[in-house]
Amino acid sequence: MTANIFYDLKGVRLDGVEISMDEFRGKVLLIVNTASRCSFTPQYRELEKLYIEFNPGGFEILGFPCNQFGGQEPGTSEEIRSFCSIDYDVTFPIFSKIDVNGSNAHPIFSYLKHQAKGIFGTESVKWNFTKFLLDRNGAVIGRYSPASPPESLRNEIMHLLRAR
């Protein structure tokens, strides 16, 4: 798949509205599989901080809740929305719960995993809060482990935002 194919993919927001990734064309994207009951869940704070700072310059974060790792995202769309809003004041787009691995993996994550393989060349996502950074053309620039704090991506995000 080429970067242009990324823009043909779609996701469903928590409110049930289907969104084409084409709406994010020309923006730097950080796509994250999230969970509400994970030891990495506090990363929502850093993600929101980056979003507030860089969104005016063309940066978007897209959160995709996933319950495939330890059952750490068991909630409904409304419960996830409420949790993200009340507990972390998240304002970036959160999509409906998906699978990131296996035969039912969402096409967005199938694309991301194929473009940026993990450790030892494997494609599967290993845990919640794996992050994928895309440039303004939809090309996957990097894949970052759950242990990588969002703040550690600051310089790369700034570099991508300056590139036109």
Query: Unreliable segments (pLDDT under 50, ≥5 consecutive)?
Result: none
Tell me the number of helical segments per DSSP (H or I, 4 or more residues long): 5
Which structural class best describes the helix and strand composition? alpha+beta
Strand order of the largest sheet: 4-3-5-6
CATH architectural arrangement:
3-Layer(aba) Sandwich
Order of helices and strands: HEEEHEHHEEH
Task: Calculate the mean pLDDT score and round it.
Answer: 93
Q: CATH class, anyone?
A: Alpha Beta
Please report the distance between the alpha carbons of the first and last residues. 23 Å
Question: In percent, how much strand structure appears in the residues?
Answer: 15-25%
CATH superfamily: Glutaredoxin
Largest sheet: 4 strands, mixed
- Give the assembly state of these chains: single chain
What global shape is seen? globular
Helical fraction equals: 25-40%
The number of distinct β-strands equals: 6
User: Under CATH, the topology is which?
Assistant: Glutaredoxin
* Number of structural domains: 1
Using the CA coordinates, give the radius of gyration.
14 Å
